[in-house]
């Protein structure tokens, strides 16, 4: 489905895109979509499949979760006509340096050109960006054999199509349609950007303006949501987890029960937006310690993570906090 639902807003749902999201969840270190587990089983079993073991090793060698980099290319792709084959062909058609620049965002085109055209430049690049890859061989493959990596990724995506997944998506068709109707009704009275913030439960650091808004609900999206933006805004999200008010309550309470994470939440509530480095400085903690805690808070839905240049900015999810409080009240104080 590709439907105009407002003056500058589109509702997008392509079933083939769901398999792209499954692949991202499998490759991401922090994918948490329970529907995928129901259909495909434990992530470890998929990751150790011999045919795609090298693909998993390359992605797992990344020191940051760059799996969502595959979504950045939607900004210049005709999403109305999305097919897996068409998206693969589009990515392969891009010059290597352009693909890598968009995928990694914070790296300049000049640095990438030096890395891919000079052995010395390649080594210097790896040493200059120790936060990208833990293994030199994985870095080499990603930067030197990029087109093969893209082909391998989409071969993996295609391998995820099976009867069980199709049956599950068929069983969810009514909930998908219901979500689409909710979006259509909401945007009759709300501005698309403010509704995006309402869905995510946050105030965005980057606020546009954006020419067009794309709302892309999913059954298999790896995390709660991901906002990709430039001249347009694309909001990918796991609508079932976002809509379910009882989602992850034990996980959220567990995350808040840690004293350091609770103090981080208090700090974000006061400051609104902070980078990991700023949080570490204000709380006098090592950046690696902060990174560990931010992953736990992000995975539970208590904070939102948004790329800003070469770093990431964090903000508290007021929607999740409100939902947590409401569920506790409805459960124990009625």
TrEMBL record:
Q: Which Gene3D superfamilies match?
A: Winged helix-like DNA-binding domain superfamily/Winged helix DNA-binding domain
Against Pfam families, the record matches this protein to: HTH_5
Positions of the HTH arsR-type domain: 242-334
According to its UniProt entry, this protein's organism is Anaeromicropila herbilytica
Name of protein = HTH arsR-type domain-containing protein
Q: Which domain of life is it from?
A: Bacteria
What are the record keywords, sorted? DNA-binding, Transcription, Transcription regulation
Q: Which SUPFAM superfamilies match?
A: Winged helix' DNA-binding domain
Question: Which PROSITE patterns would you find in this protein's record?
Answer: HTH_ARSR_2
GO MF annotation terms: DNA binding; DNA-binding transcription factor activity
UniProt xrefs under InterPro entries: ArsR-like_HTH, HTH_ArsR_DNA-bd_dom, HTH_MetalResp_TranReg, WH-like_DNA-bd_sf, WH_DNA-bd_sf
């Amino acid at each position: 489905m590709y439907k105009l639902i407002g003056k500058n807003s589109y509702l997008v749902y392509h079933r083939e895109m769901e398999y792209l999201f499954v692949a991202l969840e499998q490759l991401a270190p922090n994918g948490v979509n329970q529907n995928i587990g129901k259909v495909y089983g434990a992530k470890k079993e998929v990751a150790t499949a011999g045919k795609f073991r090298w693909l998993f090793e390359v992605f797992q060698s990344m020191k940051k979760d760059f799996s969502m980099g595959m979504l950045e290319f939607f900004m210049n792709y005709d999403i109305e006509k999305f097919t897996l084959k068409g998206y693969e062909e589009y990515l392969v058609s891009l010059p290597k340096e352009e693909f890598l620049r968009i995928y990694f965002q914070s790296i300049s085109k000049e640095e990438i050109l030096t890395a891919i055209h000079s052995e010395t430049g390649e080594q210097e690049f790896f040493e200059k960006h120790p936060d990208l890859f833990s293994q030199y061989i994985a870095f080499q493959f990603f930067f030197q054999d990029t087109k093969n990596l893209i082909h391998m990724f989409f071969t993996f995506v295609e391998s995820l199509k099976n009867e069980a997944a199709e049956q599950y998506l068929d069983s969810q068709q009514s909930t998908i349609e219901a979500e689409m109707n909710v979006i259509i009704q909401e945007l009759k009275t709300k501005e698309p950007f403010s509704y995006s913030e309402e869905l995510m439960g946050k105030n965005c650091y980057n606020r546009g303006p954006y020419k067009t808004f794309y709302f892309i609900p999913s059954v298999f999206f790896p995390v709660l949501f991901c906002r990709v933006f430039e001249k347009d805004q694309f909001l990918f999200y796991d609508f079932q987890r976002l809509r379910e008010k009882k989602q992850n309550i034990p996980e959220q309470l567990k995350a808040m029960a840690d004293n350091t994470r609770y103090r981080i939440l208090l700090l974000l509530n006061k400051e609104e937006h902070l980078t990991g480095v700023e949080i570490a400085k204000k709380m006098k903690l090592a950046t690696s310690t902060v990174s560990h805690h931010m992953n736990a808070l992000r995975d539970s839905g208590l904070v939102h993570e948004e790329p800003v240049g070469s770093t990431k900015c964090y903000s508290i999810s007021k929607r999740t906090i409100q939902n947590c409080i409401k569920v506790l009240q409805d459960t124990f104080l009625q």
